[in-house]
Sequence to fold (135 residues):
Amino acid sequence: MPPNHTGYYRFVSQKDLENYLETLSIDVALRKVALLLKPDKEIHHEGDRMTVKTLSSVHNHELNFEVGVEFEEDLRIIDGRMCQPVVTWQEEQLVCVQRGEVPNRGWRQWLDGENLSLELTAREAVCLQVYQKVR
Fold:
């Protein structure tokens, strides 16, 4: 049985976000704003259904999906693109492959005690974000 990710997580750290955003062709002004943000994550996980809310002072993003079922994700506000992701379990990690214009785009999410780790990828770029569960 995969771990339940339900909880509210506060931002702790990130590594290589600027390179990841540059790889997605995010303009320099938006990259600078994104580097200042310290978003929270609110996750509701029930069976194969998940809602992941990324909450910040500038923009909130909500992702609703069923594990194993491809869906359409509107990322135009972030990088001007649409993609067709599918999220699956690989052992105890959630793995998302985002089919679209950018090769090797996706993310991996896992729990490590009270921490939630999120690895974002696009082409060769990799960004690691860490969040701590607060409730």
Q: What stands out?
A: The CA atoms of residues 52 and 96 lie 13 Å apart.
